[in-house]
């Protein structure tokens, strides 16, 4: 610290943020991300979490989803596919069966053969996956009432 007059202590200045009108929405998003961060291993990417939540949302609505459906989710802001050739890594962590890349998966998803087309493998939620999805919905609901 340079020599001279001592610093004067003043009350903090409160400035209105450009995001002031978005505090509630941001708080809700933060709570969900917080629980995702606490519930998932550190190696889970935002895209993997998105894949899990997309699968949960689609199956909750009674829709079938297959792995290649994740490719149809489009591109990121830089034009790269959200899920490309590495699509397997986007969901395998959540499977109920170990794989070479994930010897200790979370057990939130399983693959089932489509009864209408034996070649198709449907992604399904396990009881553990449904419990995690319900936990996240509950956190979101609570954040709407507290923010």
UniProtKB/TrEMBL annotation:
<dbReference type="InterPro" id="IPR036390">
    <property type="entry name" value="WH_DNA-bd_sf"/>
</dbReference>
<dbReference type="InterPro" id="IPR036388">
    <property type="entry name" value="WH-like_DNA-bd_sf"/>
</dbReference>
<protein>
    <recommendedName>
        <fullName>MarR family transcriptional regulator</fullName>
    </recommendedName>
</protein>
